[in-house]
């Protein structure tokens, strides 16, 4: 989160008084993580400031919203906001994205056959079960520098 957004949030919270109602369009405009949201909700509750979110239909004066606040506080204890979507720690040897169509050996074989002029691009594509553009990308990737 940028420092500007943090300072703006701090200024906003500093200007609120007991019995005020803080209205936000969405809760993610108020906090970036569930933990931050739970902390802000706790501070607002201690200072007797009500919270209302228009998109989530949340009004902290209603009993259902108080239950939501309790659930949010419990969810803030879980590490879901700090884990990458893959469930593994960042840098654990896993890359995202689509798996490659061709192995390193296939790239080398395509380069060798193309350089020897033993196969056409169409034949190479049919042999490896890929499209012509994939063969051209392979040749570009393995081009001598």
Helix and strand arrangement:
Layout: H1 3-15, E1 21-24, H2 34-46, E2 50-53, E3 58-59, H3 63-76, H4 104-116, H5 121-128, H6 132-141
Parallel strand pairs: 1-2
Antiparallel strand pairs: 2-3
Helix pairs in contact: 2-3, 4-6, 5-6
What does this structure look like?
- The protein is mainly alpha-helical.
- The chain has two domains: 3-81, Rossmann fold (3-Layer(aba) Sandwich); 104-141.
- Helices cover 49% and strands 7% of the residues.
- It contains six helices and three strands; from the N terminus they run αβαββαααα.
- The chain has helices at 3-15, 34-46, 63-76, 104-116, 121-128, 132-141, and strands at residues 21-24, 50-53, 58-59.
- The protein has a three-stranded mixed beta sheet, with helices on one face.
- Strand 2 and strand 3 form a beta hairpin.
- The protein is rod-shaped, with a radius of gyration of 27 Å.
- The model has no long low-confidence stretch (mean pLDDT 79).
């Amino acid at each position: 989160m940028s420092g500007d957004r943090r300072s703006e949030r701090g200024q906003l919270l500093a200007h609120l008084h007991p019995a005020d109602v803080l209205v936000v369009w969405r809760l993610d405009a108020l906090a970036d993580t569930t933990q931050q949201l739970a902390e802000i909700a706790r501070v607002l509750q201690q200072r007797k400031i009500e919270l209302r979110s228009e998109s989530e239909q949340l009004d902290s004066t209603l009993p259902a919203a108080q239950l939501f606040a309790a659930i949010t506080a419990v969810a803030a204890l879980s590490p879901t906001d700090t884990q990458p979507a893959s469930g593994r720690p960042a840098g654990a040897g896993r890359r995202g994205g689509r798996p490659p169509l061709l192995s390193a050996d296939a790239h080398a074989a395509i380069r060798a056959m193309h350089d020897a002029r033993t196969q056409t691009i169409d034949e190479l594509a049919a042999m490896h079960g890929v499209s012509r553009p994939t063969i051209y990308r392979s040749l570009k990737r393995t081009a001598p520098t």
